[in-house]
Amino acid sequence: MKTPVLALAAIVSFLQPVFAEDYKPAPELAEVPGVPKGEVLKFTLADSKVFPGTTRNVTVYVPKQYDPAKPACVWVNQDGMQHKASTVFDNLIAKGEMPVTIYIAASPGVLKALNGAALDRFNRSYEYDGLGDGYARFVLTELLPFVERQKTGDGRAIVLSKSGNDRCIGGSSSGAICAFQAAWERPAEFRRVFSTIGTYVALRGGDGIHSLVRKFEPKGLRVFLQDGDRDQNIYGGDWWMANQTLERALAFAGYEVNHAWGTEGHNGKHGDAIFPDAVRWLWKGWPAEPQVGESKNTMLNEIILPGERWQLVGEGYEFTESPASNAAGEVFFISTNKTYKVGADGKAAEFLADSKHASDQAFGPDGRMFVLSALEPQVLVVGSDNAAKVFADGFNGNDLTVAHNGNIYATDPLSGKNQYSRIWLIKPDGTKQMVDEGGVRYPNGISLSPDQSLLYVADARSHWVYSYQISPDGSLRHKQRYFHLHMPDTADDSGADGMKVDRDGRLYVATRMGIQVCDQAGRVNCIIPTPNGRVSNVAFGGAQFDTLYATCGDKVFRRKVKAKGAPSFLAPVKPASPKL
Question: What residues contact residue 114 under an 8 Å CB cut-off, 6+ apart?
Fold first, then answer.
């Protein structure tokens, strides 16, 4: 396939976009005699499960060159067929400037009223402007399978590629943010995005996308953006500024991004004119994949090692939790009432056949393992003989951390009828005292700062991690909602769970959105996703504590990093002051 030179100056230049009153349509927008014409099919898709009860129209373009023996590339578009796509695809495919691609255009869903006296429910803003993976799931589990159940006019089966590298998704206005969000949520499934006059504003949280782009570890996407300086500036925001803000965020974060800026308003005139050249750019070099660039995010670069990716430790578990490292950097985790140990080969093997239904575990300064039992209201201690003994009892703990001085702190979300939200201190002699009650909705993960002067407690039912100062006697004071986490649009809280710190004072929090990494000032600087999109807890292991472990549902992953962990059983270390 050829890699053409982009024709329009607005596309060629990243830094000097063209501003013009009139846009000369690209020649590929017009039918060319002798060019094979594809077929356009129309269907109705009803009874969605992702968007219950909705009905929508589906238009499918199948190029003349399509051969069912070779799965076709896919272009998904919102709001039906746009930009004379069938003609443009005919011309570009015939010239070898894009792969054989089936174009699938769906209208937004409508929930039909039960009678003529009532109004239909129109799903466009809900499906398109909303964040989360709902629309991506609809495309992957309903729209694409639906299209593959259809036949072409001459009876050919429709066979679509399952590779994300062979898929592009695009749209205009709300359809554009929908396209971007689908690829953002499922980068393994959609690698190329076309966006015109995108609605990256505050209708349903879209104004926050650019900040997440800057914080997340880069995803391998190629993105083309178009907008004009006369676009809408209304109650939801300024479309023109929002599109430029997203473009700058993508460039900052190391994405393959291109744009065409102009002077049009909220219409398709400019988008139509540049569509053929944008399509060329999005498919350039195919089947080579879009490249993952280097982010300019300082904290991310201080943590991530170039070229290092997540490696699978083990899989097939029912649920994994509570990774804990000992003084040798060996890592242990829990699944289905068993404790596993990660060996030098990076693989997990059973260590204890009975974990005592542990909800969390941590090593103390003397090498013993302390375990919170979910079966009995007890803290157990496991010595070198692997025998478990009761160390303290009387509360149902959730997570714990053990300080260098032997003090244990544990969270207790539910401790009896109408009693909840407690934090306990267990002294080295096993005596316990409640050091906070009722101040955190659902205290979950818990960690000490590297210098062990502060205690951090995650509230799983909000977007806060609390910070307490530890008094000389071990009691807590000066509680503050301190670390401000991101929440997905699909949930009412961050789901913050296990936490750990590194020697530079960064806090790593397992959340619904991935591992959110905060500076000492309480700000999320970067977010590290896991391969399967799930994470319940993290730990630093390895001889230098420079390997990050993550328990992720039925899997456990590890990844070598630049940062070095600060397990709380080690002597306190004072990090440098944050940049405020």
Answer: none
Scored b (16 or more CB within 10 A) or e, 151-162 reads ebeeeeebebbe
Going through 79-182 in order, the beta strands assigned E by DSSP cover: 101-106, 110-111, 121-122, 167-172
CATH 3.40.50.1820 fits 9-282, yes or no: yes
Contact 473, 433 (CB under 8 A): no
Residue located via tokens 């003090």:
407
* CATH of region 298-560: 2.120.10.30
Q: Break the chain into its structural domains and give their ranges.
A: 9-282, 298-560
The DSSP result for 319-347, as a single string, is --EEEEE-TT--EEEEETTEEEEE-TTS-
Closest residue by Cα to residue 187 from 290, 98, 288, 279: 290
Count the Cβ atoms, other than its own, within 10 Å of residue 345.
Answer: 7
461 and 468 Cβ atoms separated by less than 8 Å: no
DSSP 118: S
In this structure, are strands 167-172 and 73-78 parallel, antiparallel, or unpaired?
parallel
Distance from C-alpha of 270 to C-alpha of 158, rounded to nearest angstrom? 32
> Where is 278: in which H helix or E strand?
helix 269-282
Q: Which of 196, 151, 159 is nearest to 178 (CA)?
A: 196
Cis ω before 287 (30° cut-off from 0): yes
* Integer Cα distance of 82 and 87 in angstroms: 11
C-alpha distances in Å from residue 357, one per residue of 133, 363, 414: 33, 17, 16
Q: What is the pTM of this model?
A: 0.93
Quick: pLDDT tens for 25-48: 899 999 999 999 999 999 999 989
Averaged pLDDT, 502-516? 98
Q: What is the pLDDT of residue 19?
A: 37
